[in-house]
Amino acid sequence: MTNSTSTAGHAPRHWYRWLLVTPFIWQAALAPLVNDIGYQPLGLPFPMAWQMAGIVYASLVIGLVFHLDQRAGLGDEEAGLLAATAGQERGHS
Fold first, then answer.
1. pTM (2 decimals)?
2. What's the Cα-to-Cα distance from 87 to each of 13, 21, 62, 71, 78, rounded to whole Å?
3. How far apart are CA 57 and CA 54, in angstroms?
4. Distance CA 62, CA 89 (A)
5. pLDDT digits (tens, 9 = 90+) for 18-41
């Protein structure tokens, strides 16, 4: 049994979505620690290189969470919701 299965009356748990907090920690919480570093990778000030690496990191984390959502079957759930919503919209037009 995995964490993503739902129990009676409870929403499924998707623990991996907490990974989406880590880019925020990278960009906001750790920024004061890197401001005084004098190392210049590729001739850029270190804080600028840190922010650019954070953008790449955030993209990787979002992609990983998307992949894990797809493995958990949330893509099928979303497709069913979109189909049901489209049917309701046609009925009201």
1. 0.65
2. 29, 36, 30, 26, 14
3. 5
4. 31
5. 888 999 998 888 888 888 888 888
